[in-house]
Amino acid sequence: MSESDCLFCKIVTGEVPAEIVREAERTIAVRDINPQAPTHVLIITRQHFTDAVSATRADSKIMDEIIREAHEVAAAEGVTETGYRLVFNTGTGGGQTVFHAHGHVLGGRGLEWPPG
Ligand code: 5GP
Ligand code: ZN
Fold first, then answer.
1. Residue 62 in domain
2. Bridging pattern class, strands 102-107 and 84-87
3. Whether pTM exceeds 0.90
4. Which residues are catalytic?
5. Is 33 in the pocket of ligand 1 (CB under 6 A)?
6. Which CATH number does the domain housing residue 79 bear?
7. Given ligand 1 and candidates 6, 9, 33, which is best to mutate, with the most ligand atoms within 8 Å of its CB?
8. Phi and psi of 50, rounded to 5°?
9. Residue 41 lies in a domain
10. Is residue 34 within 6 Å of ligand 1 at its C-beta?
């Protein structure tokens, strides 16, 4: 399933270019166009889901795959020692702006808590 007007569906098909850092069977990892940390990579499902909750409801294995891929990216970026943050903004009030399931991998600098 894909949605003709969805930006991340277009990144998955290659219609919109992106810097792909890792590919897996059901996810791709791309560098965020507006990075908020030295490492800021998005783990995007190849299939269209509105958000992470919709994805896990449709297929509970997909979140496991996103988290594993996030860790592989963090390791490749050299941020596992210092630590990194995996974020799923969910809904407009949660900061979600692209309504296609994705996790953010953020690392390479100190990350404050609570987030803004
Ligand atoms: P959200 O706000 O939905 O959690 O995250 C969407 C993310 O997608 C934002 O961090 C934003 O910078 C990123 N983004 C928006 N447009 C593009 C794009 O065209 N290419 C890439 N690589 N990232 C994008
Ligand atoms: Zn989509």
1. yes
2. antiparallel
3. yes
4. 102
5. yes
6. 3.30.428.10
7. 33
8. -65, -40
9. yes
10. yes
Kindly state if the Cβ of 18 falls inside 6 Å of ligand 1: yes
Atom 19, ligand 1: which residue's CA is nearest?
33
Domain assignment present for 35: yes
Domain that holds residue 83: 3-107
Closest listed residue to residue 101, CA positions, set 27, 10, 35 = 27
Does residue 114 sit within a domain?
no
38: preceding bond cis by omega (within 30 degrees): no
Ligand 1 pocket member 65 (CB < 6 A)? no
Contact criterion met (CB below 8 Å) for 64 and 88: no
What confidence tens digit (pLDDT) does each residue in 9-64 have?
A: 999 999 999 999 999 999 999 999 999 999 999 999 999 999 999 999 999 999 99
What's the domain count of the chain?
A: 1
Residue 81 Cα to ligand 2 midpoint, Å, equals 33
